[in-house]
Amino acid sequence: xxxxxITVLLLLSSFxxxxxxxxxxxxxxxxxxxxxxxxxxxxxxxxxxxNNNDIFYPYGIDILYQFNYFQELRLxxxxxxxxxxxxxxxxxxxxKGEVNDNRDKYTQLLENSLFNSTYGEAHIxxxxxxYFSYFYRYKTGKASLNSGWYIGIPxxxxxxxxxYISFSTNPTLGFRQAITKSLFIEGxxxxxxxxxxxxxxxxxxxxxxxxYCL
Length: 214
What we know:
This protein has a single domain (33-213), classed as Porin (Beta Barrel), CATH 2.40.160. Helices cover 20% and strands 51% of the residues. The protein has helices at residues 2-27, 105-115, 134-139; strands spanning 39-51, 59-74, 79-96, 118-130, 148-152, 155-159, 165-169, 172-178, 183-195, 200-213. The longest helix has 26 residues, at 2-27.
């Protein structure tokens, strides 16, 4: 019985030493060996924008639904470049409006119809990203699919495929979490700078994305 007890204790100490060595290895991994993964796949996202730039109807929101193909390329250890393109369906809603008797009925009807409309656009997005928590999450085994906190500056080109083309940027603070080996969810908060002829404003927004990696 004494020999069996000693054998069990030796085995437990061996396993403990093995796990301790593995943890030390992870903690001492050099930063130059910790790098983002290159990813590609499809994503579906929804974004709500506080569209407060309308002169006559300042209490509105835009709801955007996007379906994209994306590629995420590693530029540096924790900096990537996200490239994506796809289609956007934009639903513009008026939450509150004031009727101005100084404008004719046709102008008011036109503004209402434009403000409460649904339209589609094609878009291309180029977004540099810094995953500032990537090193820590990698060492703790939580960096699958580049999961973690990030700061991104997407630059977007939109077109309705006829004559309308627009550019926009949306500095974003976000978080990505892997669900499986191929699926992740991502949420972000950002602001869109909007400039008019004699005015400018910031439109805050919130987004939620679900992506599948090929």
